[in-house]
Input
Amino acid sequence: MFINKKSRFFSLTLTILMVLAVFLLLQPNLAQAKSFNDQTLSDNFRSYLGQSSKTGTIRGKLSFPSEQIPPLTIFAIRIDNGLSTYYSIETTQNQFSYAIDVDPGIYNVYAFRDDFAGAYTKYVTCGMGSNCSDHSPLPVVVKAGKTVKNIHLKDWYAPTGTFPTRPDGLNQANSKSTCEAYHTVGWGETLYKIGLRYNLTWKPIAQANNIINPNRIFAGQTLCIPSTTRTVTSPSPGASTVPTFIITEVTRNKQGSVKTSGFPPYQECKVTMGRMGTQGMDGIEVDETYTAKGGSFNASYTIPKALRGLDIIAIRLESSSGYYSYNWFYNNTTP
Output
């Protein structure tokens, strides 16, 4: 009886020691598993809040209202967390697409050239046609590890004030310390015409805004007007007015009619049409117009076959002596 009790005692003790040994051997693995589970829960929780450790990507195409795409700054501005959070990248000359990595969240996406902005808006998804009048920025939802495609930054035609200013606070071209005023370019305006308003020649305006080609400014562009006062000179001998014209009537894919104002007398003007953003420069020649006694006259011009089907067409009247004016029209029939 005594021997049996002693045997059971040793057997129980041995069992306890073996269980303790197994527990001690497994302890590091248990700690490791606990750490792994904590990390998994942490990632899941961050993902639920839109703050996963994995980023997402926004991709799309770029454009600019000119023959070339200059270097741009792309901003993805987060709109769902109440914070001033944004991500930015720089593009190069004639870069036609972009990709920007961001944390999961909801964003508005913009492209900036100095203070002039383009964006991904309802106007872009509508097709940028004449019936597309809503320029509201569209929200872009980004999930962890996912790529959102076709976020094209092509709306450079929104009314002034539609888009926010650069979130980085930079104003590359327009410095308040040197700008007496700011001017938003209207359709058909030239640097010469803008200079007349501010008692300046076109040259200081071009220099203040880093404009290499004075013929290539575009509607919606914000210009710094320098404070230097200069004497206004004519762009060509004998100039006394600024040549302009308006679009009076359009027959889709057939012709556009114009009414001019301020054209100099007895000038042969070459009439060209091209894609939107070109100002009609290097476009397709559609006619030549003689200004006779100058001033105001009406004329109609045939839309070339190569441009039929476009939603917007640029048109330009330019004389051999240097006078020119340009405008654009929606390729839709008007009454």
In short: Residues 28-52, 172-177, 228-240 have pLDDT under 50 and may be disordered. The radius of gyration is 33 Å. Residues 244-330 form a domain with the Immunoglobulin-like fold (CATH 2.60.40.230). DSSP finds four helices and 17 strands in the chain.
